[in-house]
Amino acid sequence: MIAPTNDKITVGEAMPCRSIRCLLVAAAAAAALIAAGGGASAQEARHFRMGYDQPRTTGYGVAADIFANKLKELSKGTLIIDQFPGAQLGQEPQMLQLVTRGDIDFIISSTANAATLSPESGVMSIHFIFRSEDHLKKALADPELVAAVRKMFDDTVTGAHVLTVATLGLRDLYGKREIHKLDDIKGVKVRVQATPTEHTMFPAYGAQIVHMPFGDVYTALQTGVVDMAENGINVYLSNKHYEVAPIMSLTEHEANNSIVWVSDRAWSSFGDEQKKWVQAAADEVGRTQPGKAIELEHESLTKLEKIGVKFVKGVDKAGFIKIAEPIQDQIAKQLGPHAVEILGIIRSIQ
Asked: Which of the four CATH numbers 3.20.20.70, 3.40.50.10490, 1.10.150.320, 3.40.190.170 does domain 45-348 have?
C-alpha cells in the first residue's frame, strides 16, 4: 500500500507521483528503458516461416540451417527462422506464388521452378553450361553472376526478391535402364521440370518429356507413367527414388541450382540494421552451401552404392553436348537479355 502523505518516506518505499511533471518524468524513464532493450517487448523474438519442398537432409536443409543459424547469431536471437521442409507449405510452384503474396516469409526454390515467375530464370537450367562440379562452385561464388541473377529477378518479379544463389549439385538421369550414350535416351519418357529450357533440350536428344509435380515422381516411376526422372544424387537418396528406379546414370547434364527468396512483406517489416542481418545471413549461404551440398552428393553416392544401387559413371556425354551447344545461345536469346548476360558470365568463368 502507498503510505499516507503525512508519513515519512524511507528507502525502499514508493513515493506517490501526483503531479503531471512527475508522471512525464516517469514515462520518459520507462521509454528510455525500453529503447535501451530493458523492456520485455524489445527482447521478444520474431519468428518467420521458411518453406522448401525437399527433406531437411538435402542441400535445401543445409542452406536453410546456415541461413537460420547465421540470422539468429547476428540478431542475437531476435529473428528466428522456423523451417517447413518436405513441401509442408506446398510444392515449389505453389510456394512461389505464396511468397510473392507475402503468405510465406522465406522460401528456397529451384531456379528451374522460378521460371514460372520469371521465364528468364530458365537460363540456369541450360544443359552443359556448367562443365563440372568445380566449375559450378566457382560460378556460384562469382559476385558478378550472383548480382546478375538477383537483378534478373528484381526486374521481372514483384512481391518478393532473391537474396542469394545456392545449389544441389548436378543433375543425373535415373530409372530401370542404363544410359551410356545419346542413343540410349531416344524415345524414353523422362519426367522433367516445366521450363522452356527442358521443353527444348530433352526433345532435341530424342526423349519424350512428361511434366508433373515432384511429389508425384515416385509413383510415376513405380507405375511406368515415366521411364526415367532426373535430379541430384542426394535428392534421389532422400526421397527414396532408388526403390523404384535402381540405376542412376551420371550424365551431369544440368546444374541443380536454387535460390533463397524473401517476400516483400517480410522485407519491408525489417529495420535497416535487420535488413543487413538478413542479407548477411543469405551471403553466408552463398559462400558456404555449394561446397557442402556437393560434399553431400559424394556421401550420398557412397551410401547408395553400399545398398546396391548401380551408377553408370562412364557416360559418353559427347553426343549430348554436340546437340546442346548450338541450342544454348538460341534458348538464352529467346528467354531475354538477362539470360544472355548470365550465360555469357557463366561461360567466362574458368
From this structure: 3.40.190.170
Lowest mean pLDDT among 30-34, 114-118, 167-171, 263-267: 30-34
User: What does the alpha-carbon distance between residue 299 and residue 316 come to, in Å, rounded to a whole number?
Assistant: 24
How far is it, in rounded angstroms, from Cα 180 to Cα 173? 11
Residue ranges of domains in the chain: 45-348
pLDDT digits (tens, 9 = 90+) for 200-220: 999 999 999 999 989 999 999
Query: Which 3 state secondary structure label does DSSP give 254?
Result: strand
What's phi and psi for 16, nearest 5 deg? -65, 140
Question: Cβ distance 202 to 230 under 8 Å?
Answer: no
Give the pTM.
0.84
Distance CA 106, CA 262 (A): 5
In angstroms, how far is CA 208 from the centroid of its own chain?
A: 28
